[in-house]
């Protein structure tokens, strides 16, 4: 790594896999790819030349259906005979990420071995986190010491930036596995003390993801796209495969492919995606709603109740301010027992008996015997004096007593 870090970019590019030798076949959404223009080079300190598909944000390559037929299909030749003795396995490292995010294949990638058809189904997930005061995510931009220029912020990039700045601060030069900020350089092979310093710091801190990560102020991004992948594999190639660029016998070509090549299928399992969104657990609107509900439950307070209370207060004030006048009675006035009563009286007058003109019968019936008897006597005397003037008739009055006079 120290030697590779000192090489110029063009030299690094030449000592790793070239695009035309690495990518043998490609198809996307059922159509052939333009390998030279559709793939962009990325130089990784660990894996060398990496090639990115659909990395240009101005030209999006989309698919309208899910499934392996409408995804990305590749045949890759790795040439395992050229591997270094320190290489543990033959194959490729695969990583799916957003266009604006820097890839970290050594941390987040998947392995695809040679001699197999590896299928990777993709499911996208969008995560939305809340910033302050509800959370502590990074809303926009990057931290001041972020070493991956022109790339959006990521948690892994923050840890690596923090680790590299600590190496530069302690040893005066940077770790060759990670980029360095402007004005700084990587530690060189000839600088023995610097190399020993790096090794000591790494051992004490536990490495990139050891106890050292607790010293870094790295937080999750507020918006993050995560791609979950499911893996399946089958033997490849089949004996009946058609090979265009193989000059050997069919058996020899199949043997070379099983040793040095592999086939990849990368596709969407479904076109919809999942959204995980953080929300405020308790907002101001919820507080007011709960307060009003509790107040109405325990005190019975409502708009109608308040109006009724106001009306009651108004009536009480009105009664207190208004004085009612009591009726007075004249001491010299004597009320009659018939002032507030209705009198009904029936008087029947019969013609006088010629045989006994003096005989007359006067009867009176009343609820009050004393008062009716006095009225009957007065009426009888009056009628005796006017016998000749009253014709045969019936006179009806209204009174509490009924008086019948016969002549």
What does this structure look like?
There is one protein chain. With 407 residues, this protein is of the alpha+beta class. It has 3 domains: 1-122 and 227-285, Sandwich (Acid-sensing ion channels like fold), CATH 2.60.470.10; 138-219, Orthogonal Bundle (Helix Hairpins); 344-406, no CATH class. It is 29% helix and 23% strand. It has 11 helices and 15 strands. It has helices at residues 2-6, 9-14, 19-22, 35-38, 105-108, 155-171, 192-205, 250-260, 284-299, 303-321, 369-385; strands at 23-28, 31-32, 39-44, 48-53, 72-77, 91-94, 110-113, 116-128, 223-235, 261-268, 274-277, 344-348, 361-366, 394-398, 401-406. Strands 1, 2, 5, 8, 9, 10 and 11 form a 7-stranded mixed sheet that branches. A two-stranded antiparallel sheet has the order 3-4. A two-stranded antiparallel ribbon has the order 6-7. The chain is elongated and about 125 Å long. Mean pLDDT is 79; it is low at 331-407.
Comma- or semicolon-separated keywords:
407 residues; alpha+beta; Acid-sensing ion channels like fold; Helix Hairpins; 3 domains; 7-stranded mixed β-sheet; two-stranded antiparallel sheet; 11 helices; elongated; disordered C terminus
């Amino acid at each position: 790594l120290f030697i590779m870090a000192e090489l110029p970019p063009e030299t690094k590019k030449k000592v790793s896999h070239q695009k035309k030798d690495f990518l043998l076949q490609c198809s996307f959404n059922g159509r052939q790819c333009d390998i030279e223009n559709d793939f962009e080079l990325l130089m990784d300190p660990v894996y060398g030349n990496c090639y990115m598909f659909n990395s240009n944000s101005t030209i999006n390559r989309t698919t309208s259906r899910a499934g392996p037929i409408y995804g990305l299909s590749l045949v890759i030749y790795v040439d395992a005979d050229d591997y270094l003795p320190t290489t543990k396995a033959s194959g490729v490292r695969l990583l799916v990420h957003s266009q604006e995010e820097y890839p970290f294949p050594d941390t987040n990638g998947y392995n695809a071995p040679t001699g197999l058809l590896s299928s990777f189904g993709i499911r996208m997930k969008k995560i939305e986190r809340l910033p302050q005061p509800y959370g502590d995510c990074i809303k926009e931009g990057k931290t001041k010491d972020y070493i991956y220029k022109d790339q959006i912020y990521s948690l892994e990039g923050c840890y690596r930036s923090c680790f590299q700045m600590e190496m530069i601060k302690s040893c005066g030069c940077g770790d060759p596995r990670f980029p360095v900020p402007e004005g700084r350089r990587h530690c060189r092979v000839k600088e023995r003390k610097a190399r020993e310093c790096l090794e000591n710091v790494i051992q004490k801190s536990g490495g990139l993801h050891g106890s050292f990560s607790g010293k870094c102020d790295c937080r999750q991004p507020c918006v993050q796209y995560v791609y979950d992948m499911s893996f399946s594999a089958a033997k490849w190639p089949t004996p009946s495969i058609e090979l265009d660029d193989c000059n050997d016998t069919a058996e020899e070509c199949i043997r070379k492919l099983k040793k040095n090549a592999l086939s990849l299928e990368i596709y969407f399992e479904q076109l919809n995606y999942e959204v995980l969104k953080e929300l405020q657990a308790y907002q101001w609107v919820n507080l007011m709603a709960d307060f009003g509900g509790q107040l109405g439950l325990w005190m019975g307070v409502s708009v109608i109740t308040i109006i009724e209370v106001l009306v009651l207060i108004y009536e009480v004030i009105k009664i207190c301010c208004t004085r009612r006048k009591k009726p007075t009675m004249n001491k010299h006035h004597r009320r009659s027992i018939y002032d507030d009563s209705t009198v009904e009286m029936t008087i029947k007058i019969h013609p006088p008996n010629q045989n006994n003109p003096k005989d007359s019968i006067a009867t009176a019936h009343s609820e009050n015997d004393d008062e009716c008897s006095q009225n009957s006597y007065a009426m009888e005397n009056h009628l005796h004096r006017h016998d000749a003037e009253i014709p045969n008739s019936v006179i009806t009055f209204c009174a509490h007593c009924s008086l019948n006079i016969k002549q």
